[in-house]
Amino acid sequence: MVAPDSPVRGYAHVIKEDLVNPNLLFLGTELGLWVSVDGGKQWAHYKGGDLPAVAVRDLAIHPRDHDLVIGTHGRGIWIVDDISPLRALTPGVLASPVAFLPDRPTAQRLQSGGGWANGDAMFVGANPPSDAVITYYQRRRHIFGDMKLEVYDASGKLVGTMPTSKRRGLNRATWSMRLAPPRVPPAASAAFGAAFGPRVLPGTYTIKLTKDTATFTTQLVLVPDPRGTHTQAERQASLDLALKIKGTLGDMTFAVERMNGVRQALEERAGRLPASDAVTKRLRAASAAVDALRKKIVATKEGGMITGEERLRENLTDLYSNIVFYDGGPAETQIERADAIARELTDVVRDFDAWATRELTGINAALRGKKLEPIQVITRQQWEAAGQ
Question: pLDDT band for position 365 (50/70/90)?
Fold first, then answer.
C-alpha cells in the first residue's frame, strides 16, 4: 500500500515486487510508473527512456533477461532493459559518492542490414541498444573539475571514450565497442563505410570514470552473439586486417594532403604573378603534374558516387567496410587485395617524392627570384600534429 504522504500521483493500477530483490517495487499508476528501492517507504517517478505519463495497467519482469515489461494505455508495451542496476541500489550504494552498478554481459550482436517491408502506417518499436551500456550512480551532481569515462583493454590501452552525464542519480552511458575510424582523404565520392572504426574483440574491458582527481573503475564483459559460429581466431584475423587497412588509409590521407598542400601553394604563388609570366606557366604546369598523381589515388569527378569513378581510395574503403561489418574472418582474396592496393599507393607516393626532389628545387629558386616564399612539402610529424 502506498503511504498517504507519498509523492505518487494518480491512482494505482498494479504493483509488482522484483523477482530477486523484495525491496524493489514497481507501481503502475494512471500517470506513469513509480519505483521504490526500500520496500515502499520512498517512491521515485520513473522517467527513463522518455516514458510518458500514461496509464500503466500491468507489469511483468522477465526472469531470464531481467527486463521490466510495462503494459500501458496509450503506448502499448514499453520495456525497460535490464533492471539489474535498480536491484543493486542498496543503502550503502546510495550513500556512496559514485558507484558503478552491475549490468549483464554485452553480446556483440551479429551485424546485418537490409530494407523493410512494412508500409508507413506500421508502428515498430526500437530494438535494444546495439552498444554496450554502462550504468553508474552519483549521489550529487558533478560541478567542479573534469569528468570523463574511458575504456581500456586488457593491456591497459585506451580504446574508447564515452560522454558523461553530470546529473545526480542513475546515469547510463553507451559505447559502440568500436575503435576510432580511419582518416580518409577527401574526394568527390562519399566513403560511408569508413566512418566507423573496427569493432573490438569479445573480452573483459576496464571502465574508468574520472571525476576531478578521483577515479572509479569497473569491468565490462563483452561476449559473442550466441547465434554466431565464428571463432575468436577468425575475429582476430578480421580485426588485424581492418587495422592494417586503417593504417593504409592513414598513409593515403597523408599522401593526398601532401599533394594538396603543394598544389595549393603552387596555385597561390601563380595567382600573385602576371598570367603571361614564364614562372606562372611553370607553376601551373607543376600543379597539373601533381594533380595527375593525386587523381591516381582519389576520385575527382563531380557528381560523387553516381559517376562510378573508382580509384585507390574508393577500392580500399569499400574493402574496409566489407571487413568491419562482417563478424567472421577475412577471405584470402581480401587480404591479397589490401596488400595490392598498399603497393599501388607506395608506387604513387614514390612518384610524387621523385617529382618533388626533381622539380621543387628549381621552382623554389624561381620563386625566390620573384620575391615569393619557397614551397615546402609537409612532413609526417607536422601532419600528425595538425590532426590532433
Answer: very high
The 3-state DSSP composition of the chain as helix, strand, coil percent (nearest 5) reads: 35, 25, 45
Could you tell me which residues come within 8 angstroms of residue 160 by beta carbon, excluding any fewer than 6 positions away? 150, 151, 175, 176, 177, 178, 179, 200
The grid coordinates of residue 210 equal: 574520472
Report yes or no: 105 and 221 within 8 Å, Cβ to Cβ: yes
CA distance 49 to 59: 17
Give the tens place of pLDDT for each residue, 17-67.
999 999 999 999 998 999 999 999 989 888 876 788 889 999 999 999 899
Q: How far is the C-alpha of 82 from the C-alpha of 101, rounded, in Å?
A: 11
d(CA 364, CA 230): 57
Residue 81 is placed in which grid cell? Answer: 532493459
Residues in the chain: 388
Answer yes or no: are the C-beta atoms of 299 and 311 closer than 8 Å. Answer: yes
Report the C-alpha gap between 173 and 359 in whole angstroms.
54
Farthest-apart Cα atoms in the chain, separation: 94
Question: How far is Cα 137 from Cα 135, in angstroms, rounded to an integer?
Answer: 7
Cα(388)–Cα(374) distance, rounded to whole angstroms? 26
Residue 49 CA, distance from chain mean position: 21
Residue 356 reports pLDDT greater than 90: yes
The C-alpha cell of 333 is what? 582474396
Compute and round to an integer the Cα radius of gyration of the chain: 29
Q: Mutual orientation of helices 332-369 and 232-270 as an angle, nearest 10°?
A: 20
Q: Is the pLDDT of residue 363 over 80?
A: yes
Cα(164)–Cα(174) distance, integer angstroms = 10
Query: For 55, which DSSP code?
Result: E
Model confidence at 187: pLDDT above 90: no
